[in-house]
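Collaborator request, handled under Task 6.
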Amino acid sequence: MNQNVPISMQAHYRYSCRFIILLCIAAFGPYVIPKAGVRLDHFVIYGGFLYMMMFRKNVKWDKNIFLLIALFLTNVFWILAVSLRNLSWTSPYRICAALDNFTQPVALIIIIYAAVTRLDRTARFNLLRVAGIAVIVMLCLNSFISILSMFYDTWPFLQYFVVAADTGLATGAVMEMAATMGRFSGIFNQPAEAGLAYSIGLLAWVYMAVTSKRINSIAWVSLILLIIGGSLSISKVFIIGGFSLSMLYWFWTVLSKKWLHIRKSTLFGGLICVLAGVAGVSLLTESWIGLDFFLRLFDPGSINDEGVISLFTAGRFGAEETSVKSLFAKTWNESPVIGFGVPLPDSGALDNAYIEFFIYGGIVGLTFYIAILAVILRVAFRGLRTDPQLGMLLMALWILIIGVGIGVPVLTINRSSVLLWIILVITFGILSKRRTSAISTSNSRFKEVPNGRETQQGCCLGQYSSL
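C-alpha cells returned to the collaborator:
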C-alpha cells in the first residue's frame, strides 16, 4: 500500500486491527451475566454483528465465506425446527443456549470478514499477523495464570470466568477436579478448551516464524510460555494435536529450505532462550503435582493397561461402553435422520464434534458439518497452490479440526473457537484476494501498512511484531 491509498482505507485498517485485538481479548473475558451464561465475548461478537448489519451492508462476500455462512444458518434453522418438536422435555432457554453454539460462528464469520474485505492483500497479511500476535500475547498471560495456580489459590479470580451450565452460577466443578490432578488451564474451565487454544496459538507462532527473517527474544520467550501453558493443561488436544502438528509444520519448512535465510544470530538467540526455558521448566516440574499424570501418556505400562485408544481419547473410545458410544447408539436407534435438536437431558457435555452435530441434527446435521470441513479443505488446497505457507497453515488447522474433533467440538466450543475463527476467516480473506504484480505475497521483516510508512509487520503491537 502507498500514500495514494484513500484515507478511508487507512482508517478501516486501523479499526480492523483494533477490533481483532478486542475480539481476542474478549475471548478470554469473564462472564458478565453469569446467570444467563453471557460472557464478554458475547457482547463484542453480537454487538459487532448488529453494527455490521446496520452500517456495513455493501460487503462483497467471497463464495467460500458465503458457503460457510449458508451451511451454518441452514443448520441453525434445521436444529430449531427439530428442537421445537421436543418442547415436552426441553425449554426455550435450553434451545437458545444450544443454538448459540451455532449462531456465534455465523456472527464471527460475518464481522471478521467485514473487517477484512475492504483491505488490499498486503494489509490482510498484516491483519493476520496482528491477530496471531494478539492470540499469542493473551495465551502467554494465561500461562502466567496457570503457573500461579500451581502455587496459590487463584479461585477468587478465576471464579468470574467459570459458570455452571445448569444454574448459571460460578462453579469450579471441572476446573477444580482438573486442578486436583495437577491440570492447570488458567481461565479455561476445561483442559480441552485450553489445549485447543494453545494449539491454535502455537500454529500461529510457527507460521509467523517461518515467514519472518528475524525472530526476536520476546518471540522465543512467548514460544516457551505457549508450550508451558499447553503442557500444564495436560490436554491430549495440545500434546498429540497442536504440538505435533506445529513441529511437523516447522520441520517441513526447514527441510524445504525455506528457512536457510534465517540469521545465525537469531538461531543462537533462540537456542539460548530455549535452554533458559528448559531450566525454568525443570524448576517448575518439582512443584507440579501433575507431572506423573502427564508422563503416564508416554509410559508403556500405562499405555498397555488402559490401551492406546482409551488413553489418548480419555476413555471416549476403546472401551466396551463409553458416553460417546451410548449417545451415538441412542440417536441412531431413535432418531438417526433428524436427531433430537437440543441435547438430551442426560447427555452431559458433548465433547465430540461429530456426535454434537449428529445428536443435534441427525444425519442431516452431520452432513452440514462434513460440508463445512470440505469448504475449509477446498480453500486450504487453493492456498497450497497460490501461497504455500498460508496454505500449510490452513491445512494444519484443518487437520487439527478433523483430529481433535474426536474430543472437542472444535468449531463451536467456548472461547477457543473464537480464536480459531479469527485465524480462519482472515486466511480465507487473504486467499480470496487476487494476486497483483505490485504486491508481494511473502511476509518479510518489513511491510508497507496503510499509513503510508514502511514499518515492521503487525504495527498495532509494536516491536513484538517483528517476531
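The cover message to the collaborator said: "The two ends are 22 Å apart (CA to CA). Residues 353-386 form the longest helix (34 residues). Please let us know whether this matches your experimental observations."
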